[in-house]
Amino acid sequence: MAGGNHSRAGEEKASSRGQSDVNKKLKYISLAVLVVQNASLILSIRYVRTLPGDRFFATSAVVMAEVLKVSTCVIIILLQKRFSVKETALFLFDSIVCQYKDTLKLAVPSLIYTLQNNLQYIAISNLPAATFQVTYQLKILTTALFSVLMLRKSLSRVQWVSLLLLFAGVAIVQVQQEGNKEKSVSDSSNQNYMVGLVAVVISCLSSGFAGVYFEKILKGSSASVWVRNVQLGIFGTVLGLLGMWWNDGAAIMERGFLFGYTSMVWCVIFNQAFGGLLVAVVVKYADNILKGFATSFSIIVSTVASIYLFGFHVDLMFTAGAGLVIGAVYMYSLPKAPAGGSSSPSSSSSSSASLASPRTDVGAEMEAFLPKCAGKQKGS
């Protein structure tokens, strides 16, 4: 009997060690992929928006990304229902149609996310990729401020210091860029640095507000992350279609919805649509501090790539500003000290949610609620 128990304990220990090794590999693989995804999205959008020739409609790309997000979440729900189409359809009908009041709450963040996705295309089309990547980290500041105002969250001293460093770093980068703009931006008639800067600032403000609003809705809800993303995607698709009709309706009627689409454009759309799902994997197998490192490293990767791809010039001021931003991203992701009061899981994870790639703000926020939803399902 004792020998059998000893053998069983040994098998469980070996199994646990094997699972730990698998999770460790998945952690570093997912982090590496996140770095590539963050950097490649910015670089690829910058590339396709500055190519000569026919330019695709950014509004149609936003709509297509929303459709892909909804499709992906529906497939995941279908997997959860063990490929039962009837059960999945009834579940979605009850969650979206029968509980329409709950669904309507998602109209506000969906509108903001749709606006934000369009603004990102405008910003990246008019700013150097590295400058956009650094400046876009201001969404950490806006998310923190809205969290304090709307959710009454408290920030540690380290986090407040990191926000000041973040603001200082972005300010240095912008002063440097204003005095020494990239030639391709200043010389090109269809690119405007100030338009790009205004677009990225508004995008950061909208990202912060929408993320905190989305968190506030989900805090008192038992709906799964995938259902919420389907609801967001439905509104996003409808609002995106309205924006497309308003802004490019006549041109799209003349040239077609997929005008200017190339294989590279499709890669950008898929990257933007599925980036948020990648963040969920990172949070599941890694942690928030490592994800902060991944975000910081992606800034370095996109800067180095911009030097070779777009002739971007890096001087001492840009290096200093980017260094402050990277340090601030890491400091903000640090957990609060036990002496100052432990932070709630939702607070710590929602803070890190703002570090995700610009492409994937809807998916980025869902990471804050994945562990919570998983815990509820396990207990139910």
UniProtKB/TrEMBL annotation:
It is found in: Golgi apparatus membrane. InterPro entries: EmrE-like, Nuc_sug_transpt. It is a multi-pass membrane protein. Keywords: Golgi apparatus, Membrane, Sugar transport, Transmembrane, Transmembrane helix, Transport. The chain crosses the membrane at residues 26-45, 57-79, 155-173, 193-214, 226-246, 258-283, 290-310, 316-334. Residues 339-358 have a biased composition (Low complexity). One of its GO terms (molecular function) is pyrimidine nucleotide-sugar transmembrane transporter activity. Pfam families: Nuc_sug_transp (PF04142). One of its GO terms (cellular component) is Golgi membrane. Residues 339-360 are annotated as: Disordered. Belongs to the nucleotide-sugar transporter family. SLC35A subfamily. This is Solute carrier family 35 member 2. The lineage of its organism: Eukaryota, Metazoa, Chordata, Craniata, Vertebrata.
